[in-house]
Design goal:
Elements: E1 4-9, H1 20-38, E2 42-49, H2 54-63, H3 67-84, E3 91-94, H4 98-113, E4 117-127, E5 132-133, E6 139-142, E7 151-152, E8 169-173, E9 181-190, H5 192-206, H6 212-224, E10 229-230, E11 232-233, E12 250-251, H7 253-268, H8 272-276, E13 282-289, H9 293-306, E14 314-320, E15 323-325, H10 340-345, H11 350-359, E16 367-369, H12 371-401, H13 412-433, H14 437-458, H15 460-463, H16 466-482, H17 488-498, H18 531-542, E17 548-550, E18 554-564, E19 572-577, E20 582-587, H19 595-598, E21 602-606, E22 612-614, E23 617-619, E24 622-623, E25 625-628, E26 631-634, E27 645-648, E28 651-653, H20 660-664, E29 668-671, E30 674-677, E31 680-683, E32 698-699
Parallel strand pairs: 1-2, 1-13, 2-3, 13-14, 15-16, 17-28
Antiparallel strand pairs: 4-5, 4-9, 6-7, 6-8, 9-10, 11-12, 18-19, 18-21, 18-27, 19-20, 21-24, 22-23, 25-26, 25-32, 27-31, 29-30, 29-32, 30-31
Helix pairs in contact: 2-3, 4-7, 5-9, 6-9, 7-9, 11-12, 12-14, 12-16, 13-14, 13-16, 14-16, 16-17
One zinc ion binds next to loops.
Length: about 700
């Protein structure tokens, strides 16, 4: 690698809390940078959040905030989590910054000037009422294959089919429900076919230092041939396209996201050109997940090459595979897995998580998180190996020699042991240099294991062998250097107990702890977790799914009495039992059920609806019924207990009071005699909610 090393970690998408799978990449970049700093290399590390795109807009609408407020909120969450995990990037920023607007426009203008930008016309849905172009996911309609009425323009959630928005029957704007118009709209494309010869030449020269999965994927893309790619979107949230006629367009987020690396550096360092426009002296090392490979090996380099300027392009890369969660994939949208904030809450130190994630780093294939494995790595490796070596060495020095290191002469086998360690340390360094972080960490733990073996052989508890304790104290000092990139807090604690300051990589093998040196009292570095505790953690955090909120609190209620409303012909008044409470509700069922028929039925009510008054009688909630062609059928849960919650899988009921207007916007329907929301059945712990009526009846 060259004189300067610029390290980036793929910018995590801002609209959610990062999970352990996302953290692997961010942590890897941090570990590698900490290693470079220990070696006194000139290095700068860059990370931040990717903030533009449709998903941010959607999330903002969902949470009732503006895109700016959403990104502010999640930017803080991301920053806090990475800090807790011990990551200290030199520059941490965001792609929505002013600097990124400027850099993106600057790069675009150069691509435009060099004739790498093309214009084309596309057909697109436009909502006149909302005055906006609709991204596919903002269009709803009837699925052409299964007839589901709430299908989205990109995918039908009911049958799972991927769709083109134009295929939907009866398309509607999902924001305001009006029918969108199909209009023609001009978009900008980057001319990748024209850039291909230059790109090919660069890829051939550069890919020797890429991970295997990156080479394979990139070469496959190149072989298939690159196509022109649209770099603009009809959105409001993003970087405005600075061309006449494109006032309603922003850049596609994958265009400005990688440019964010440059902008984030530019914002935090005056000397940013020394790094980004200095390919002679700078090696760019990029960390990412395998899903991000083509953005870093093809698209981002194409933008930079297309400017005609001398940018620092990708040198070494480390693209990891996926870390899965207990035999399934981590999923933000389904809320499966351990999230950064969960890890913070568990009470386990951040170094334990760092150790776990780096020792299970999915370098060549997917790996899997499990609580059992986390417990095993902590107990058998951190406690029994590293922690044990440090603790017993210092404890025996304390016991036999107080706080002062003893005088001792090394023997032949002590020197041989040190030689062996020096060899192992070289190998760990080699692995670190080639960014094989997992291999390096295993090597380092092997060095610690050799220390324990040597301790066993020398039996200092019997022999009070001072030479052995002196050798081991210096080995521990070496370990505090070797593990610092992985376990920064532990390195600090070892130094505190050993009475030393953090040394650099060049101090490996040097006898810094000399006779007469003062050490502190030994204390355990890590705490074991027992089976019971691991199981509790798994229960508390493992099973926890970050659920979406269903705005209604639906409950099963038993009708205990039914009578006619005193002042309204069509209404009746029901007494209902909700297990712990009794309520009264007004309903309009007199044309459909007799009071006798109603009595004793287990029905479903909305319990968080604002109480209302119907002609002098208060209604404390509302019952749910399905209606089609004048036929009305109650939703029933005959086998469930009064008071039991009615839920939708993967969602949690909101207990917040809602108004009748808010309620009327929530669309539920019937399918195969079941009540469904977004294609998913409403159910209690015992049964799915029945509605004995034909498909597509509206539930109110
Ligand atoms: Zn469908
Ligand atoms: Zn609309």
């Amino acid at each position: 690698m060259k004189k300067r090393i610029l390290v980036t970690s793929a910018l995590p998408y801002v609209n959610n809390v990062p999970h352990l799978g996302n953290l692997v990449c961010v942590l890897s970049a941090d570990v590698f940078t900490k290693f470079l700093r220990l070696k006194n290399k000139k290095a700068v590390s860059v990370c931040g959040t990717d903030e533009h795109g449709t998903t941010t807009e959607t999330k903002a609408i969902e949470e009732g905030l503006t895109p700016k407020q959403i990104t502010d909120k999640y930017f803080r969450i991301h920053k806090k989590i990475y800090e807790w995990f011990g990551c200290d990037f030199d520059c941490f920023g965001r792609t929505s910054s002013k600097a990124n607007h400027e850099t993106t426009k600057d790069i675009f203008f150069k691509l435009h000037k060099n004739n790498y930008i093309k214009e084309k016309e596309l057909e697109q849905a436009y909502c006149v009422k909302c005055e906006r172009w609709l991204a596919d996911r903002f269009i709803g309609g009837i699925c052409p294959s299964c007839g589901y009425e709430e299908a989205r323009g990109d995918q039908c959630e009911n049958c799972g089919r991927l769709l083109e928005a134009t295929e939907l029957k009866n398309p509607k704007c999902r924001i305001c429900s009006s029918t969108p118009e199909i209009r023609k709209s001009r978009h900008l494309f980057i001319d990748l076919p024209k850039l291909t010869p230059k790109l090919k030449k660069w890829i051939n020269e550069s890919q020797k230092n890429w991970t295997e999965n990156a080479k394979t994927m990139t070469n496959a893309w190149m072989k298939e041939g690159l196509k022109e790619r649209c770099i603009t979107r009809s959105l409001k949230w993003g970087i405005k396209v600075p061309l006449k006629g494109y006032e309603d367009k922003v850049f596609y987020s994958w265009f400005d996201a990688p440019i964010g690396y440059i902008s984030i550096t530019r914002e935090c360092r005056k000397d940013w050109k020394q790094w980004w426009k200095n390919p002679k002296e700078t090696t760019l090392v990029q960390f990412m997940g395998k899903d991000n490979i083509p953005f870093h090996t093809i698209l981002f380099p194409a933008f930079l090459i297309g400017t005609g300027e001398k940018y620092t392009l990708l040198g070494h890369m480390s693209s990891n595979e996926y870390l899965n969660y207990e035999s399934g994939q981590f999923s933000k949208s389904r809320g499966i897995g351990i999230f950064g904030d969960d890890a913070m809450e568990t009470g386990l130190p951040s170094d334990v998580w760092r150790y776990y994630l780096m020792t299970n780093r999915p370098e060549k294939m997917d790996s899997e998180f499990s609580w059992k494995d986390l417990q095993a790595k902590l107990n058998n490796e951190l406690v029994a190996n590293l922690g044990n070596l440090v603790n017993r060495t210092l404890a025996y020095i304390n016991r036999f020699h107080g706080s002062r290191m003893p005088k001792a002469a090394l023997k032949k086998d002590d020197r041989e042991f040190l030689k062996k360690i020096a060899k192992e340390e070289k190998e760990a360094e080699k692995a670190m240099d080639s960014i094989q972080l997992k291999t390096a960490l295993k090597k380092i733990m092997e060095i610690s294991r050799l220390g324990n073996q040597y301790f066993q052989k020398k039996e200092p508890w019997k022999t009070k062998n001072a030479a052995c304790l002196l050798v081991l104290a210096n080995l521990i000092k070496d370990l505090s250097i070797l593990i610092q990139p992985f376990l920064p807090e532990t390195a600090k604690e070892i130094n505190r107990q050993l009475g030393t300051r953090q040394k650099t990589w060049q101090d490996l093998g040097k006898p810094a702890v000399k006779p007469g040196h003062r050490i502190m009292k030994a204390a355990p570095l890590f705490r074991k977790i027992e089976d019971r505790e691991a199981e509790l953690l798994r229960k508390k955090y493992g099973g926890k799914k970050k659920m979406e909120t269903f705005p209604l609190d639906l409950k099963v209620a038993k009708i205990t009495a039914a009578e006619n409303h005193p002042n309204a012909e069509k209404l009746n008044v029901l007494r209902i039992d909700l297990g712990k409470e009794q309520r009264q509700i007004v309903s309009g069922l007199r044309d459909h059920y007799t009071n006798e028929e109603l009595k004793g039925k287990n029905i479903v009510i909305v319990s968080n609806l604002k109480h209302a008054n119907f002609r002098g009688v208060e209604s404390q909630g509302m019952l749910m019924a399905a209606e089609k062609n004048g036929k009305v059928i109650l939703l029933e849960a005959p086998n469930s207990e009064p008071g039991e919650r009615v839920r939708i899988e993967g969602m949690k009921n909101s207990e917040k009071e809602i108004t009748i207007e808010e309620f009327s916007k929530i669309k539920m329907a019937t399918k195969s005699k079941k009540a469904v929301y977004n294609g998913k059945p409403l159910k209690t712990g015992k049964e799915e909610i029945r509605a004995d009526i034909e498909d597509g009846a509206e539930i109110t």
